[in-house]
Amino acid sequence: MKQKKTWLITGASKGFGLALVKQLLQKGYNVAATSRTIAQLESAAGPSAPGFLPLEMDITSEASVKEGVDKAVAHFGGIDVVVNNAGYGLIGSLEELSDAEVRGNFEVNVFGTLNIIRATMPHLRKQGSGFVFNISSIGGFYGDFPGWGIYCATKFAVHGLTESFAAEVKPFGVKVVDVAPGYFRTNFLSSGSILTPAAPIDAYKEVRDSQAAHQDGINGNQPGDPDKAAEVMIAVSESENPPLHLFLGEDAYGLAHKKIDAVKAQLEEWRHLATATSFS
Ligand SMILES: NC(=O)c1ccc[n+]([C@@H]2O[C@H](COP(=O)([O-])OP(=O)(O)OC[C@H]3O[C@@H](n4cnc5c(N)ncnc54)[C@H](OP(=O)(O)O)[C@@H]3O)[C@@H](O)[C@H]2O)c1
């Protein structure tokens, strides 16, 4: 019989992370899950199950990440699937958001992901196998959303580094998937997750309207079910040839096509001029 696989999931006290933890434990996988607050994770995940290792981790601290990953490897004897899930949204125009607010978002969404990659890769490389899901967003592929520029920038960064990462670790038998969800009904748009500028500027009416639409209208009404997303990810983790890009949800699927079609049309429309640049 195939040995039980071990997953490591960051940001697991709510949303996608928690949905994954619950389903994986129910299906008999080993799960090491991280949270900034272990008590919150333990109470959200329910009664402790065999095969569950809750870990308190600050993904922005390299030392904390290394300590947690080492504990998971010592406890389970290895890690098979890594999910870089922890992240948060930031709504505000580029002019409104302070340097500290922008860097904070990059610190978690991008540098946190890199900390986990650096701590887990030595183990995956040594065992000659592994699977990494980097959770980016449809906003990491399609950026036409007023007020979401910095969040999109963090997720475009995740998308970009994931493409290179996949090529780098393929020789070690490690598979990598960039997950780009559309709107899913998690805590993502609720206070406690989403952040807004400390110094808003009234003139940015479109941005405030988008903020209100997301916090008051879309929040709680997102079409995507995180439990179904977790099911899809578990199925993909078991596939021999997983996709590099996994757009989750009908909305993400539609926006990905919209972007691809627009880029293709512009490529052709401007081809004559844009390619007239070689030495001749
Ligand atoms: N829901 C969506 O519509 C959607 C769409 C596209 C992409 N995503 C991405 O999906 C991932 C999971 O989000 P979710 O939708 O499940 O949202 P969520 O319910 O708010 O959960 C986010 C998780 O990330 C961690 N997190 C949040 N803010 C953090 C911070 N400042 N520092 C460190 N960790 C933090 C939290 O972990 P702890 O509190 O346990 O530490 C939390 O469990 C994120 O990367 C998000 O960008 C979500």
Write structural notes for this entry.
The chain is an alpha/beta fold. The chain has a single domain (6-274), classed as 3-Layer(aba) Sandwich (Rossmann fold). It is built from 9 helices and 7 strands. A 7-stranded parallel sheet has the order 3-2-1-4-5-6-7, with helices on both faces. Strand 1, helix 1 and strand 2 form a beta-alpha-beta unit. The longest helix has 29 residues, at 99-127. The model has no long low-confidence stretch (mean pLDDT 96). The structure holds NADP nicotinamide-adenine-dinucleotide phosphate. NADP nicotinamide-adenine-dinucleotide phosphate is lined by residues 11-17, 35-36, 41, 59, 85-88, 108, 135, 137, 181, 183-184, 186-188, 193, 222.
Quick description:
The protein is an alpha/beta fold and 280 residues long. Helices cover 48% and strands 13% of the residues. The chain contains nine helices and seven strands.
State the main characteristics.
280 residues, Rossmann fold
Write the layout of secondary structure elements.
Blueprint: E1 6-9, H1 15-26, E2 30-35, H2 38-45, E3 52-56, H3 62-76, E4 81-84, H4 99-127, E5 130-135, H5 149-169, E6 174-181, H6 205-218, H7 226-237, E7 245-248, H8 250-269, H9 271-274
Parallel strand pairs: 1-2, 1-4, 2-3, 4-5, 5-6, 6-7
Bound molecules: NADP nicotinamide-adenine-dinucleotide phosphate.
NADP nicotinamide-adenine-dinucleotide phosphate (NAP) binds at residues 11-17, 35-36, 41, 59, 85-88, 108, 135, 137, 181, 183-184, 186-188, 193, 222.
